[in-house]
Design a protein that fits this description.
The complex is a heterodimer of chains A (338) and B (581). Chain A has 14 helices and four strands. Chain A has a two-stranded antiparallel sheet with strand order 1-2. Chain A starts with a helix and ends in a 7-residue tail after the last helix. In chain A, strand 3 (102-103) and strand 4 (108-109) form a beta hairpin. Chain A has 338 residues and is mainly alpha-helical. Chain B has 581 residues and is of the alpha+beta class. Chain B has two domains: 52-279, Periplasmic binding protein-like II (D-Maltodextrin-Binding Protein, domain 2, 3-Layer(aba) Sandwich), CATH 3.40.190; 331-550, Roll (Dipeptide-binding Protein, domain 3). Chain B has 18 helices and 21 strands. In chain B, the strands form six sheets. In chain B, strands 15-19-14-18-16-17 form a six-stranded mixed β-sheet. Chain B has a five-stranded mixed β-sheet with strand order 10-11-12-1-13, with helices on one face. In chain B, strands 4-5-9-8 form a four-stranded antiparallel β-sheet. In chain B, helix 11 runs antiparallel to helix 13 (425-441) and helix 12 (399-409) packs across helix 13 (425-441). The chains are: A mainly alpha (338), B alpha+beta (581).
């Protein structure tokens, strides 16, 4: 087992390095000049060159990439200009390993920016996850045990209708109507638990999390329904029924457990991808999580932030994959790790 | 000389006045005079921003609304534009931290100011001449202090090499370099003298409109780490001292500010006790904010915004909501640039100009509440503005005249052109309207809507674009911040880039006029040279003006004194605004 985990981790590190290289290559292949954005409105070509050098974009991308990897391994000091650091040591920002980079536009390390944004994205993902899991599994079981009935068709049809709406439309509807026009809930603004308490944290997450949960709900309803139905047709379920077990026990203890295995896989991967940032939802609700940070960094051509987020998102997905594989073995004893 | 310059400045502003706001204001429910109750001191004003700002550092601030509103609240300058609706008065600086608006030498290459006694930073320390000098020196550290206006780099009389200043800013300067800089900005007690390498006739206007010469306290400076820090000297300070890019900040009364050193009636009434600035950085920020202002509940009753009412929402501005609505001319002009490298035939350029259907463009953008036809690239409120004679006449596009010109051009018809623009639903519609009329005249138009890469693409010398959509607003009320940055080929055009001169336009005759303007020792001469330079651009059809943008503002029902002024760049004039207590 441990050898397997170590092997997966090593592959993960190689993947992350490849991700950073691809991001650097794509960034520098783009026709967008990051110095144009940073240089201000009335900026001569000459001034833009100075700005480009100040941003560190004047060097070949492989050199910049190598510097970035060094920062990941041992940390880095900013600004990169050694003369500047020597002349004004009080202006130096040390970015400890693993250093994800430094945003010249925000004058902050990417680690700090990620540390600010991650709790917001994680909060959103956790509340959405709880919503869609509870809703998805319960409605899925309901549809399965009433297979072919009006309830079954109603649940599956209803969730599909919601699924058909793009998340953007749901988010804008919830924000513009439920919050602004009808005033049913206050305008959502992320509130930390430390600032406003648990209720303020949760109530402000309600609409954005609901947007995400509705997006995922239909998939989980259908998956749960399908897996439970499949389990219900297994021999061991027939045996359990024949032994006279209550139908609740048959469904929840025996059928659902078997259905959980693929659901856990799905959940792990979906949750991991959400931790990389729910771009549309965060953007509509102005939640300054990783999704919003990604869009802002893209709009302002902030390479350091883009690479940092790609790296983080990649890492989360890779770790989630490893965790899911391990959980798989735990939940389903039939699965053995080779 | 000093009085002469002032007279000339006034005359120039008056010239602008006569031609400027015939169409300003009044086209909406009101002319932005508010009609609200008179404001009184106290209460909390909420300012809803539809996008994050780029920096809180005065030497890096470049957004028009931020320059205007922070001048009224946090950062005072040597001089400032008054809160006057009249263009002549509103475009004429008055003393702020200085005792007067400055004394120039004979050719305006040197300006002397005296700093008032008793002006202080929020920490209680005096604002000194050295603070002004230090602030100006930071602009030269353009590898650290990026993004702000940098006009002083080409004006201040510091040693140069290959046309560039050798002074690297205060962080890396050697003692010798610093000594040279200290001669360019000389301090003698409270007297500060700016020595330039050429005349700078409109320097007080630049100092009022921008913050590049604002004071900065050296001991507060942490270079790049100061990007979001604020050390105020105005009637407000920032709670906590650090601006949150994503959230904003709260301005509270600055106890170290002494109203007696100020001219509150002219420069800043500072009515609210608190101003809460909230950032909504979403793509739909303007829609959401204006929906909130229409709903007018809770704190939104005390709110103003930088988010204009989108054209699609204007139909909701009716009844009681209309009482809280203003439609005003902005300082921004939309125009088309012709590629000088590909559109070389003068008859073809002329044909394109005469068949440009400006009326349909405005209609497609949302109608007369979104813009009014422009007769020049220069905004009508700019001192010295005059209609460019090349663009007088019908705004609907004259197809027959264009057909005739194209036939005379000797070119094979239909004449193919590629029209590039920043893609958006309204721009698609507006450019479609242009396409229709141009094609009727004999052009074959390919629409080229571009995303984030737009300005990078159109600034390339080898682009495929023949005509490009652009927009501009002057940095301070002077044509020197319009024609030179946009069409002077010398700082703009290189082998790899045409920078802001998107059409890669080059004309020695035009550049000569710019030099005349730059070296003019009085505003009258400067304005004359710039007017002539615009005529050259018109004659060459270097650009085609489309429309002057209009701003549509909503405000909460408990906001008082809402207005816009030339100094506020047609954004809410925060120096006048209060809330009902």
């Amino acid at each position: 087992m441990w050898a397997y985990v170590v092997r997966r981790c090593l592959v993960g590190v190689a993947l992350i390095m490849a991700l950073t290289l691809i991001t650097f290559a794509l960034f520098f292949a783009s026709p967008v000049d990051p110095a144009r954005f940073a240089c201000g409105k009335n900026c001569s070509a000459e001034q833009r060159d100075v700005t480009r050098a100040a941003l560190g974009y004047d060097k070949p991308f492989v050199v910049q990439w190598a510097g970035y990897l060094k920062g990941l391994a041992v940390g880095r000091d900013f600004p990169l200009d050694a003369e500047q650091r020597a002349a004004a040591p009080d202006q130096v920002t040390h970015c400890a390993a693993p250093c994800l980079g430094y945003s010249h536009l925000d004058s902050k390390t990417v680690n700090e920016m990620v540390a600010d944004a991650l709790p917001i994205t994680a909060s959103l993902a956790i509340v959405a996850l709880v919503m869609w899991l509870i809703g998805g599994v319960l409605f899925g079981i309901l549809a399965a045990i009433h297979q072919g009935s009006l309830i079954d068709r109603g649940v599956v049809g209803g969730t599909l209708v919601i699924y058909a709406f793009p998340s953007f439309a749901i988010a804008v509807f919830l924000l513009q109507y439920v919050a602004v026009k009808w005033g049913i809930v206050p305008l959502p603004r992320y509130t930390e638990i430390a600032d406003g308490g648990l209720w303020a944290w949760f109530s402000n997450l309600l609409l954005p999390a609901l947007t995400l949960a509705l997006l995922y709900l239909a998939g989980y309803v259908r998956m749960t329904r399908a897996f439970v139905l499949e389990s219900l047709s297994e021999d061991y379920i027939r045996t359990a029924k024949a032994k006279g077990l209550k139908s609740r026990t048959v469904v929840f203890k025996h059928a659902l457990r078997a259905a959980l295995t693929p659901l856990v896989t799905m959940t792990g991967l979906d949750f991991a991808s959400l931790l990389g940032g729910a771009i549309i939802t965060e953007r509509v609700f102005t939640y300054h999580g990783l999704g919003m940070l990604t869009v802002d960094a893209n709009n302002s051509s902030d390479l350091a932030v883009l690479v940092g987020i790609v790296l983080l998102a990649g890492m989360i997905v890779i770790i989630a994959n490893i965790v899911v594989d391990v959980l798989y073995a735990y939940i389903d004893p039939r699965v053995k790790v080779a | 000389m000093r009085s002469k310059l002032r007279r000339i400045g006034a005359a120039a502003a008056a010239a602008g006045l006569g031609l400027s706001l015939a169409a300003c204001g009044g086209s909406g429910s009101d002319d932005a005079s508010g009609g609200d109750a008179e404001g009184s001191k106290g209460g909390t004003l909420h300012y809803l921003l539809n996008a994050p700002i780029e920096s809180a550092d005065p030497q890096r601030v470049y957004y028009g609304f931020q320059l205007a509103s922070w001048r009224r609240t946090l950062y005072r300058g040597l001089v400032a534009f008054p809160m006057d609706k009249d263009e002549k008065a509103g475009n004429t600086p008055v003393a702020d931290l200085a005792t007067d608006t400055g004394t120039p030498n004979e050719d305006a290459s040197s300006w002397e100011f005296t700093i008032k006694d008793g002006v202080k930073w929020e920490d209680g320390s005096d604002i000194t001449c050295e603070d002004f000098r230090y602030g100006a020196s930071r602009v030269f550290a353009n590898d650290v202090i990026t993004g702000g206006p940098n006009y002083t780099l080409s004006y201040l009389d510091v040693p140069q090499k290959d046309g560039k200043p050798t002074y690297p800013g205060p962080y890396k300067a050697t003692p010798e370099q610093q000594a040279e800089f200290d001669k360019a900005i000389a301090c003698d007690g409270n007297k500060i003298t700016y020595n330039f390498n050429k005349p700078w006739a409109d320097f007080p206007l630049a100092a009022a409109g921008m913050m590049m010469t604002d004071p900065y306290k050296e001991s507060f400076d942490e270079g790049p780490k100061s990007e979001w820090k604020v050390l105020a000297n105005g009637p407000y300070k920032l709670e906590g001292g650090v601006w949150d890019k994503n959230k904003g900040g709260t301005m509270v009364r600055n106890e170290a500010y002494d109203e007696k050193t100020d001219d509150p009636e002219k420069l800043r009434l500072a009515l609210p006790d608190e101003i809460v600035w909230s950032v909504d950085g979403s793509d739909e920020a303007s829609e959401i904010i204006n929906q909130r202002l229409i709903a007018d509940s809770g704190d939104d009753q005390y709110a103003i915004t930088t988010g204009r009412v989108p054209a699609t929402m204007l139909q909701q501005v009716t009844g009681a909501v209309e009482e809280r609505y203003s439609n005003v001319l902005s300082p921004y002009v939309r125009y088309l640039v012709l590629n000088a490298k590909s559109m070389t035939n003068p008859k073809v350029r002329e044909a394109l100009k005469v068949s440009t259907d400006i009326d349909s463009v405005i209609k497609a953008q949302g109608g007369d509440k979104i813009g009014v036809p422009a007769e020049s690239l220069v905004n009508p409120v700019t001192p010295g503005y005059q209609d460019n004679p090349a663009f007088e006449g019908d705004n609907a596009g004259d197809v027959e005249a264009a057909k005739k010109l194209l036939e005379e051009s000797g070119e094979k018809l239909p004449y193919p052109i590629q029209l590039s623009y920043a893609k958006s639903p309204t721009n698609d519609a507006a450019m479609g309207a242009l396409q229709q009329k141009w094609e009727a005249a004999g052009f074959k138009v390919t629409l080229d809507g571009l995303g984030d890469t737009y300005y990078d693409v159109i600034s390339k010398p080898d682009k495929k674009s023949d005509v490009m959509l652009a927009g501009w607003g002057n940095d301070w009320p002077s044509m020197m911040t319009v024609m030179p940055p946009l069409f002077d080929s010398r700082p703009n055009v290189s082998a790899t880039d045409c920078n802001n001169d998107y059409g890669c336009y080059h004309s020695d005759e035009f550049n000569k006029k710019l030099d005349e303007a730059a070296n003019a020792s009085d505003l009258d001469a400067q304005i004359k040279a710039l007017q002539e330079s615009d005529e050259i651009l018109g004659k060459d059809v270097a650009y085609i003006p489309l429309y002057v943008e209009k701003f549509n503002w909503l405000r909460g029902s408990k906001v008082t004194g809402f207005d816009v002024t030339p100094a506020s760049s047609s954004y809410p004039e925060i120096g006048l605004i209060g809330v009902q207590n």
